[in-house]
């Protein structure tokens, strides 16, 4: 039996088991048939946050941001570009701390934007402040 990786569908939340060797082949969800990776950050809420963090076998990079934050708005295109470069090895996600204040409080987010890298359900690294795409990719790769 081949080595497999669990991936949470960004559309329906189903947990998919994908052969690790096929991650780069644009896998689709077995339940909703949508692409598991779209080179676009996933919006996380209080309802789906734990599932993505705990059930995905790949690391999850979360951008804690707010719509009124100028640096957050400036970093958004860079985060999109980083998603194109890092998927499918890393899932990129965003948490709107204005809409989800409990998540911001739970992770003691004191400044935004803040990037938090999760692996195996636990936070393994954190970086406050806006960054460019190349810097985001380098930072993630240096932490994995």
From TrEMBL:
One of the entry's Gene Ontology molecular-function terms is: metal ion binding
Q: Which GO terms describe its biological process?
A: cell redox homeostasis
The Thioredoxin domain is annotated at 33-144
Q: Does the keyword Metal-binding apply?
A: yes
Q: Name one GO cellular component term.
A: cytosol
Q: Which domain of life is it from?
A: Bacteria
Kindly state which keywords UniProt assigns to this record, in alphabetical order.
Answer: Disulfide bond, Electron transport, Metal-binding, Redox-active center, Transport
Cross-referenced SUPFAM superfamilies, in alphabetical order?
A: Thioredoxin-like
Entries under PANTHER family matching the protein: GEO12009P1
The UniProt similarity line reads: Belongs to the thioredoxin family.
In its UniProt entry, what is this protein called? Thioredoxin
